[in-house]
């Protein structure tokens, strides 16, 4: 993308004109095994953090896996282009786009492994990714003016969200039963957790993982007759 941008700008009559990438993916083939993997999701997360620097628009190729140029596919997972496998099963890369959609308008940080945004008030959101074979740890610090923050995280990695692995474990059935399809759809969902912290958030991104978070000020508004600690203690 950088090379294409520089080539365009080398010509005075075209310099500065918008560049549109109408098709992009990690492979030009509709039968590339990479497309179905968590590594693909992490790579696309890194790519999305950069494409806007050079391109006015960019379109992932494609949304669905049904693609006839190399013949109609006979299995739910076959390395197809799509974000969604046949049977309405989201691939890990689907969630990369879903996470970026929820980012805020102000970019506070953009690095080799993550991006952090804010709404300009008290809400933060970010995406972090790991293209390596080793776990990576991060720590984020939030404004100390807020006493407590509620962190919501959504994780997609090889352990939490890997429908390809589960399909393989099932014996790679070419024709999914209704039960198998429902199971893979469930497995394909991100792992969602919440936690409360003061002004820092530490987390680990597993190999080939994508980690989305949102941080909001925590305001206690429950009824004064309810005591959560007593509930936990069984009283």
UniProtKB/TrEMBL annotation:
Family matches, as Gene3D superfamilies: Glycosidases, Glycosyl hydrolase domain, family 39
Molecular-function GO terms, alphabetical: hydrolase activity, hydrolyzing O-glycosyl compounds
InterPro entries: GH (IPR017853), GH39_cat (IPR049166), Glyco_hydro_39 (IPR000514)
Source superkingdom: Bacteria
Coiled coil segments of this chain: none
UniProt keyword annotation of Hydrolase present: yes
Keyword Hydrolase annotated: yes
Glycosyl hydrolases family 39 N-terminal catalytic domain: residues covered: 11-197
Keywords: Glycosidase, Hydrolase
Family membership noted in the UniProt record: Belongs to the glycosyl hydrolase 39 family.
Protein name according to UniProt: Glycosyl hydrolases family 39 N-terminal catalytic domain-containing protein
Organism placement in taxonomy: Bacteria, Bacillati, Bacillota, Bacilli, Lactobacillales
């Amino acid at each position: 993308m950088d090379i294409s941008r520089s080539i365009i700008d080398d010509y005075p009559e075209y310099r500065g004109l918008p560049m549109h990438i109408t098709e992009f993916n990690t492979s030009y083939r509709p039968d590339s095994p990479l497309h179905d993997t968590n590594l693909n999701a992490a790579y696309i997360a890194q790519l999305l953090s950069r494409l806007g620097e050079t391109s006015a628009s960019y379109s992932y190729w494609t949304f669905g896996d049904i693609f006839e140029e190399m013949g109609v596919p006979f299995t739910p997972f076959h390395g197809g282009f799509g974000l969604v496998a046949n049977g309405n099963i989201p691939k890990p890369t689907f969630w990369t786009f879903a996470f970026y959609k929820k980012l805020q308008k102000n970019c506070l940080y953009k690095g080799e492994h993550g991006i952090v945004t804010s709404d300009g008030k008290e809400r933060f959101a970010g995406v972090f990714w790991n293209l390596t074979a080793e776990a990576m740890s991060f720590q984020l610090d939030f404004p100390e003016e807020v006493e407590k923050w509620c962190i919501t995280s959504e994780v997609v990695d090889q352990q939490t969200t890997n429908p390809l692995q589960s399909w393989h474990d099932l014996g790679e059935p070419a024709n999914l039963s209704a039960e198998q399809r429902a199971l893979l759809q469930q497995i394909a969902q991100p792992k969602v957790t919440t936690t409360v912290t003061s002004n820092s958030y530490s987390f680990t991104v597993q190999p080939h993982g994508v980690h989305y978070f949102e941080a909001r000020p925590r305001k206690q508004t429950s009824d004064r007759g309810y005591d959560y600690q007593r509930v936990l203690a069984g009283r």
